[in-house]
Amino acid sequence: MALDPATRKSIADLVRRTGYERREEPFQLTSGGWSHDYVDGKYAVAAGPALRQVCEAVVELIDDPFDSVGGPTMGADALAHGVAMIAGCTWFSVRKEPKGHGRGAWVEGARLGPGDRVVMVEDVVSTGASLLRAAEKVTDMGASVVAASALLDRSPQVAERFAAAGVPWQPLLTWADLGIEPL
Fold first, then answer.
1. What mean pLDDT is predicted for residues 113-123?
2. How far are the Cα atoms of 23, 35, 54 from residue 28, in angstroms, in the given order?
3. N or C: which end of the chain has fewer CB within 10 A?
4. CA 101 – CA 119 distance, rounded (Å)
5. Which CATH class is domain 5-177?
6. Helices (H), 29-179
7. pLDDT at position 45
8. Separation CA 91–CA 69 (nearest Å)
9. Cβ contacts of residue 180 below 8 Å, gap of 6+?
10. pLDDT, tens digit, for every residue of 3-62?
């Protein structure tokens, strides 16, 4: 399902106002790319009303039913918690490495397994690599990924990578919505 144009514009305005900054000097992103455009998705949704607006849009955007929502910690955490509250489902976070004690888990929060349908989320995606790695950990547990979303997709390569992985990619915004250069 496509996001309502007024909702997309409202979220783009929110991100521009609270999470975007144009930097004179280019800086290196976690993905390795370089940009003048800094987007802090976590800060953009730090206020309750902003988080609610974005999470309601994620729920509106995802066509398939799902049981749980999550992604790589920290980028997914706020969205996963908010979407879970709105959708009435469970949430999870995927660690960068397994916990060193206890269950030695990669995934915290919901205990995922066969038959669980999940939506993967993240705040800002530049290549999709960390979200796809997190999706792999979830599918290793037997769950199926029915869709993936992000507050912002910064590159046309992201959609290609998710298509190649067989995961429907449905970001709320792209670089074009913010009027910034793609990576």
1. 97
2. 12, 7, 26
3. N
4. 27
5. alpha beta
6. 41-44, 48-61, 77-87, 129-140, 156-165, 175-178
7. 98
8. 5
9. 20, 35, 37, 39, 154
10. 999 999 999 999 999 999 999 999 898 888 899 999 999 999 999 999 999 999 999 999
